[in-house]
Queue: 2 jobs
Job 1
Amino acid sequence: MNYNKNSIRIAFLLIVITIKTVCSQPYLNPDLTINQRVDDLISRMTLEEKVGQMTQYVAFKHIQGVSGVAQLDDIENVNSDNEFYPGLKIADIKEKIKKGEIGSFLLVKGLDEANYLQKLAAESRLKIPLLIGEDAIHGHALYSGATVYPTPLALASSFNKELVKNIARATAKEMRLTGYHWTFSPNVDVAKDARWGRTGETFGEDPLLVGEMGKAMVEGYQENLKNEGVLSCLKHFIAGSQPSRGLNFTPMDASQRAMKEIWLPPYEKSIKAGAKTVMAAHHDLNGVPCHANDYLLTDILRNEWDFDGFVVSDWKDVFRLQTLHKVAENLEQAASLSVNAGLDMNMHGPGFHEYVVKNVEKGIIDLSRVDQAVKAILTSKFELGLFEKVLVDEENEKKLFDEESRDLAYKAALESMVLLENKGNILPLDTKKYKNIFITGPNANNQTLLGDWAGKQPDDNVVTILEGVRNGFKNSNVTYYECEDHRSISDEDIDKVKYKASEADVSIVVVGDNSFRTYWNSRTNGENSDRADVSLFGRQLDLVKAAHASGKPVIVILVIGKPTAIPWIKENIPGVLVAWETGAFSGTAVSDILLGKYNPSGKLPISFPRSSGQLPVFYNHRPSSYYRTYNDEETGALYGFGYGLNYSNVVFSNLSVPENIEKNKLIKINVEVKNNGYLPIDETVLLFFRDNFSSVTTPVKSLLAFQRTYLNANESKQVFFEIPYESLALLNKDMVWEVENGEFTFFIDKLNAVSRY
Ligand code: BGC
């Protein structure tokens, strides 16, 4: 009885305390609007606390991992300096969290560390939760046990916006389960130079496709933000994906025309879709580093596009204004240049907090600029519901890689793969004819197929190509020869492959890239792993040639993160499949395609060059691009944008376009598509157009719209497009978008038809 009375008293007391706290600190009251809560909170913050929100740090386990101590419990006792924040001990960083001088973390290693950091933040005066960010660019892939989906370039090959949106949604869900709230994705730069190691992080060479995929990702990530969504981050603002010498960081010169026609539209579309954050790019644009570029970060983003989210720097790039670009004499000036240009949060990079505070005190940075940044950051934290619930359940890891995510990853892998060659219809493989299968190559049996920005996953969560083939070809005899990695293919390997291929009925040679950061030292591709030569790395072609020299048929599977120059393979190998880096179920998907259980439907979102000297090669070039030809190389792509074979004979007919295009009206176009095959197919219909004669030069072809349509065996369908007439606009000499009078040609597959405006 007494016990009950006491409990009631305690409960009553707690309610009174809560009501008092909420009344005295209205920002904790969920019944107020987010604006009211943000304004109240900002009014209580000191300058140091405000700048704290703009400051992001690398988390402890990562720091300690580098200096050798990796357990959270040990961190408590670690006293040594660390190479990330020289002069600071972990204990000092903990103090900073408690003083409210850090607002965000990246490189957090696991759910327990996320909770650990949040508990420290809860000890701060205002108890503002931390925003935890991560590069979850194709699934929560850096997290052990999460689902790894195909990389963005692979996904773009599916031309399936719904799929991309679903993957973003599923990624967000796994992030939130483990205490992460912000993904540094999508990359919506247009990529045209395969030497750049990060090409696979993009959606390819076409601005319309990139914009549509970016929009789909943003919508998926940010859906139901309060409970299951995460903030998206458009990057790297802007134009870093076609660096002049193929190298990350290289300066970029882009004309006003190129900016408006190519680089800005995907960002604008994704901002309009609601993207909450943007990351500035490493390089300088037309001589002004993107991190100190007010034209980009303020004029375009905020003034032109009304962006009210926040801009984060890239890794250490604020301080590279001094150390690399040499536009600031010291770090204090670097901080003021970037914040005044419109930067709101510093990713990593020591000293930022101190220098911004100093700059405000000296009147070099206006307090209103800081308030603008803090308002956007806090708004996101409230929208994410972090003030209501920030700790995650330790059991949540069990919910990762669930059935729904696995199905989605498998479907995505299937839809992303692109069939490049099928000479003599060698595929699907006739399992009666080809009983003895030999498989080899440096990508055949490891996790390189997860791509960049993925961590090592439990073996049970990944189906390698070898495993996929063994599981799929149950009645065949599958033999395997292991090549250690891409860099160490030896004469002995080559001889063995030739011999073993001659003993088999067919060989499957799995070659390509290693973008996987877990195997950092042997990488051939990925971030900061650019190449001067985009043919197959090392002696991989010799391996393919050896298998071919056996006289037996060869299938080449390309586990690649970007276009690769493979003219010899195109000429000589009957079956070639681009498997890209398609994540957890790459092996099952390859096997299903080889067996004909799935009709390949991917199409290239980026052109494959014949050789490195041709770069950049892309389909939507201006008319005079190939007026003159090389004297030592053919012109044009080896495989162009939109290319991809299947096991059906898909035939297009009756392309119908209006005779006249009317101002402000939709242009109605339709075409008949027939699947003459015995397997169903998801066919992507690509609609292109050309402005036949115009006042400025325009591309020979531009993508206008695309649509996937499911066709059963022998089925035919009408596919309808309704195109806003402004889609035909060009940027005239005065830099104004205008649809000019004249003729327009529309193209679908080999058909074309003309309309007048
Ligand atoms: C990359 C960014 C990434 C950041 C954090 C940088 O090196 O350029 O794209 O988001 O690291 O991992």
Job 2
Amino acid sequence: MKFNTKTIHGGQKHDPAYGAVMPPIYQTSTYAQSTPGGHKGFEYSRTHNPTRQALENALASIENGTHGLAFGSGLAAIDAVMKLLKPGDEVISTNDLYGGSYRLFTKIFQDFGIKFHFVGMQDVSKIEDYINENTKLVWVETPTNPMMNIIDIKGVSEIAKKHKLLLAVDNTFATPYLQQPLDLGADIVMHSATKYLGGHSDVVMGALVVKDEELADRLYFVQNASGAVCGPQDSFLVLRGIKTLHVRMQRHCENGKKVAEFLESHPKVEKVYWPGFEFHPNHEVAKSQMSDFGGMISFTTKGNNYEEAIKTVENLKVFTLAESLGGVESLAGHPASMTHASIPKEEREKTGVVDSLIRLSVGIEDADDLIEDLNQALG
Ligand code: P1T
């Protein structure tokens, strides 16, 4: 089955009770048993729920995995991966990543004795400098949030395999429409399903997909034992979102290209970060592992002026100033004071998250309106 068919049918069955085309929202916490253990495959909704299971099957299908797991948020999904580790273990992570992931690693799991190395992986060979006998996991975000760095997943996976490390890829920005990390050698794909998978800014949810039975069992154990699951209503909404992922992503990419090119030519703009530009340092890797370049763009204004960046985002009328990304509507954010405020200033500035950086999630409106809006806001 090809991708655009999988988004609609992958892993799906019509409901056995009445043939409902969409899975019903099984709004139940528990299931009747005829005798202890005598049930129809569902005992308690933290462990299994038919609506969540329909979504988990769809997630596995679109990421070319065998098992999907849905969580109450993207961070809950990352939390479950980190719970595969033990005190003393070490993780090598991209140095540019969502501020909340950084906060989870450094403010929660570091206190449980897990050590994190934040490494610029644009040159994958750098990873080897940090590998020792305690290293267990490589955490890759690509494209990175918010600097749009591209990491060579296949290159990282070769190093991870050589040293018997797990490789997890946060595929939130790319989505499986653009990039399928399991096919490139990753062991775990993670999503903030809050973003493009849900697609309508109405749900907070996380997801993991794997292709190994034993790893799936370990993660299902954590999912059930820690309990950070999502509810049936949210599962339904994300399943519905996935059915239009391919058409939405196509438009996000088209609009993203137009907006990136407009910004690049604007006299007040200093630098535009978008992997579709030939001058992007890892454009060739992006071309080889992604089918297009997505709708996420970051840029700085000339003079690196904090007040001017704030004024620009405040002036926007079609773009909404808000956290998050990946919905049908265009959003703008100021990473230094919003999504990445939990990263110390000296750390974030090392990766380029300076005070004048603005991040755009380009939606699927008419591109002319988006460009006009940016033009007036910058003006
Ligand atoms: O917000 P949540 O669903 O828990 O997902 C966390 C997360 C994980 N990974 C990436 C790449 C992310 O971008 C996020 C969430 N990001 C935002 C809310 C944001 O505006 O960047």
